[in-house]
Amino acid sequence: MNKGKVVIGMTQHACGLDREANVEKAVKLIREAADKGAKIICTQELFKGQYFPQIIDVSKYDWAEPLDGPTNKRMSELAKELDVVIVSCYYEYAMDGVYYNSAAVFDADGALLGNYRKHHIPEGPQYIEKYYFTPGDSPYLVFKSKYGTFGVLICWDEWFPEASRILALKGADFIFYPSAIGSEPDNPDLDTSQSWVDGVKAHGIHNNMYVCAVNRVGREDAADGSGFMSFYGRSFVSDPWGNVMTEGSRDKEEAIIAELDLDEIKKARDILQFHRDRRVDSYEEILNLVIKE
Asked: Confidence class of residue 186 from pLDDT cuts 50, 70 and 90?
């Protein structure tokens, strides 16, 4: 079956202290991507504000919005106006004391297709996410939009191969990975950007699919002055063979655009039969956190 082609877009930008200005910056880049032909556009992780999990600050819970809050309302209206699909990444208020790192997906008519909640929550120096985010309770979702069928995994999710495999088996042709990744404060000389690119595109190889990873750029100082994070950009798209099709800069604000030939997925899967040759009867052990002989 011929699936044709689709142009996707991703918004890579710095985030300042003015949260509404950050939204306007994202809107500008979404419009730019749409003008360049993108039909499905993904924002970066938590695009409305600076990366607040650098420190513990109870007041940041007030940044969370419900699914139908003002940011997503704006993205829904924009999707309808531009006739595009938008992946809107936001800090979700579910109830008092329960907050998620989420991505709402709006179809080209502005209708909500679904809301994915980040499953894997990291904890480390200046990545203090377990304080702010409850582990996601949504399934791994596949969104069947007007212009294509895809999944969304958020940042730390991208390091776990099980999640991408599930989305591929559910019928996703490509996966968006909205992220906020950069320096390692306890290892200041370590640059993980190439490991990030290689790790994410490996999911595309193992599942014969496209992967589309979007990151932020710029330096963000911790609110209490205790440190800072430098985000390394490099938003990219790779094909079912693991070839990087396009890649953003390390420091430039830009709309990343790529045309995906969805028929290449079937071609790759017919040659490299990873899904056919899976031994699901032999994987029971992986459900244990630790395997002991």
From this structure: confident
Any idea which residue has 């007041």 for tokens? 59
CA distance 138 to 118: 8
The mean per-residue pLDDT over the stretch 154-178 comes to 98
Query: Annotated catalytic, 118?
Result: yes
Q: Annotated catalytic, 158?
A: no
Q: Is residue 293 part of a domain?
A: no
Q: What is the pTM of this model?
A: 0.96
292 within a domain of the structure (yes/no): no
On the question of pLDDT at 1 being above 80, the answer is: no
Surface-to-core class of residue 97, CB atoms within 10 Å of its CB (0-12 exposed, 13-18 middle, 19+ buried)? exposed
Provide the domain count of the chain.
1
Q: Of 25, 39, 48, 118, which one is the catalytic site residue?
A: 118
Q: Report d(CA 229, CA 125) in Å as an integer.
A: 10
What's the CATH code of the domain at 80? Answer: 3.60.110.10
- Which residue is catalytic, options 39, 45, 48, 129? 45
Residue 60 has what pLDDT? 97
